[in-house]
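Hi, does anyone understand the following?
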Amino acid sequence: MGQVFLNGQFVDSDRAKISVFDQGFLYGDGIYESFRSIGAHLYQFPLYYQRLQQSAEALGYELPYSRPQLEEILLELRRRNRLTDAYYRITITRGPGQVGFQRELTGDLTCLIIAREFKGFDETHYRDGIALRVAETRRNAPEAINPKIKSISNLNSLLGKLEARAAGAFEVIMLNNREQICEGAASNIFWTRDRWVFTPSVATGLLPGVTRSTIIRLCEEELDLRVIRGEYRLQDLKFSDEVFITSTSLEVMPVVRVDDFMINQGRVGPIARRLRNVLHLDMGKTAVSS
């Protein structure tokens, strides 16, 4: 079963125990980050740690480990589980507490780190492209829930995923409460027109993914494409040459259909392919230089 890191100790995953009074379990009071390593290189980890800090500060948590300490823990977990290219998830909750309105919000945090071998998705998805469904569920308004907090209370995204599954789609496009394109349930979205690349801006209420920022950089620095962040509506996709979604695990996933509308006559375009290749090169480059 392998090992996990739980509250300062490496333990067998089938023996790891968290209190039934943990406030993450009872109230969704927790944060998380997921990321990868290429060999022993923790790809883009400084950016993920920065976002973890941002989430922690918003909820009044004091992170239990510094970035160098976490890096050491992560690599030791990789070694103990004999992983090559790892997929990690760090989960931090407010820890054990009481049930009820007057519960205390102070105490020892729960920190759980899981690592498994990164498997990725079947290559047929990248070759043939995927279908998206426009969700009826709207993205949480940023005035209600700060999108910069990567919260384990992920019901909004789950409802979108359930819609995708019911429709036989790979992922959904979630609109905000102003009917603007926001993001997927667990991805960011891009589309192209000629030498221009478009993606929703943070003003729409999206979570600014680390892979999103990497793709923006690679578009501009490696492919000489200009990226325009803005507030867009669904009809903008109908004039696109290509559509693709991105995330830590998806990398660059090409889209050939949105609801009943075909993108690029149902064919995967060259930019998505090139971007995924460039992303792989960037992963390898940073692994060698670190």
The chain has a mean pLDDT of 94. The two ends are 30 Å apart (CA to CA).
